Amino acid sequence: MDKIRNRQVLLPDGSFIPKLGQGTWKMGEDDAKAQREIDGLRYGIRLGLNLLDSAEMYGDGKAENIAGEAIRGMDRDGLYLVSKVYPQNANRTHIYSSLQRSLKLLGADYLDLYLLHWRGSCDLSEMVWCMEDLRAKGLIRRWGVSNFDVQDMEDLRSVPDGRNCCVNQVLYNLASRGIEYDLMPMQREFGIPFMAYSPVGRAGDLVTQDGVDKNGVQTDPNVLEVARRKGISVIQLLLAFAMRPADMICIPKAVSTAHIDENASVYGIDLTDSDLEQLERSFPAPTARIPMEKY
Q1: pLDDT at 202
Q2: Could you tell me the mean pLDDT of each successive run of 10 residues in the chain, 295 residues long?
Q3: What distance in Å separates the CA atoms of residue 184 and residue 122, rounded to the nearest whole number?
Q4: What pLDDT, on the 0 to 100 scale, is given for residue 201?
Q5: Of residues 227, 224, 257, the one with CA closest to residue 240
Q6: Considering only CA atoms, which of 267, 295, 46, 294 is closest in space to residue 152?
Q7: What does the DSSP assignment read for 213-253?
Q8: Do 252 and 52 contact (CB within 8 A), yes or no?
Q9: SS3 per residue for 135-179
Q10: What count of other Cβ atoms lies within 10 Å of the Cβ of residue 290?
Q11: CA dihedral of 255, 25, 185, 262, whole degrees rounded to 10
Q12: CB 131 within 8 A of CB 156
């Protein structure tokens, strides 16, 4: 497999989005950690990780505020800002105030990408109408969805302008490969790329507070052997695996400079067919439909 040379992903509207960015989930929830989180995002941006992903749900806006503090004084044109709206707010009554609050917390006058966080009981026709109206007003550049499965995507494409969806943000990592069976082929047919959240697995999911590796990824012999053979960390290996599809954007969360350095250096990692075959022994691709996994 070729090295991950292309650092951007083509979107359906003809624009490009960075292939690797920074997630902000759980940021802002502890005031004692706020400055470290701000500094971490700034450090990542200096390394070229200029895509920041957040959501109005994350800490009730506290993560957006952390991101806003991190980018204060920076050139807006050099950033790619993504946020997400609650399904209950994705309507004519609430979406405009939701977006304005997100923009205020981020200190921005527009979003590069605005996502419906999950489907819930959202009226897709109204949601799409609102997204298109926000785009026409210049408040967002493009829109997409998150946690949408096959039927959700089919329903979305059946409503007026639903085919303007640019991205579907989903859970995807070595231990969560369900989308490869049916959702990935479907979206590729329509040219809609993915954005992977928790691309190396959520810390609380991979390893418990007691240090127990719940799904065995970080202590799996095949994972450890491939990482050792390549001279990289397990985190780098997991991120390189998630990033290997050309249409996959990844938004790992990191705070420490060491972890951010690991993420930023993943572009130089080449996963060979032999590497992938060894990883498959422990974490095989799905052979049947798996209901969408999500956090």
Answers
A1: 61
A2: 70 97 97 98 98 98 98 97 98 98 98 98 98 98 98 98 98 97 97 97 48 68 97 97 97 97 94 98 96 84
A3: 23
A4: 86
A5: 227
A6: 294
A7: BSSSTTT-HHHHHHHHHHT--HHHHHHHHHH-STTEEE---
A8: no
A9: HHCCCECCEEEECCCHHHHHHHHCCCCHHHCCCEEEECECCECHH
A10: 16
A11: 0
A12: no
Q: What is the DSSP string of 3-62?
A: -----EEE-TTS-EEESB-EE-TTTTS-GGGHHHHHHHHHHHHHTT--EEE--TTGGGGH
Question: What pLDDT was estimated at residue 211?
Answer: 42
Task: Name the pTM for this structure.
Answer: 0.94
Check residue 210 and give its pLDDT: 41
Question: d(Cα 165, Cα 148) in Å, to the nearest integer?
Answer: 11
The total of other beta-carbon atoms located within 10 Å of residue 84's CB is 27
CB 194 within 8 A of CB 10: no
Amino acid at 256: S
Query: CA 264, CA 33: separation in Å to the nearest integer?
Result: 22
Q: Which residues contact 240 (CB under 8 A, 6 or more apart)?
A: 4, 232, 266, 269, 271
Residues with Cβ within 8 Å of residue 209, at least 6 apart in sequence:
none
Given a contact cutoff of 8 angstroms between Cβ atoms, the answer to whether 180 and 171 are in contact is no
Q: What is the CA radius of gyration of the chain?
A: 18
Amino acid making up residue 12: P
Q: Any idea how long the chain is?
A: 295
Q: What is the pLDDT of residue 284?
A: 97
- CA 117 and chain centroid, separation: 11
Which tokens sit at 70? 């991190």
Q: Name the one residue in this structure whose structure tokens are 């304005």.
A: 100
Angle at 4 between CA 78 and CA 198, to 5 degrees: 75
Residue 81 has which token pair? Answer: 């800002």
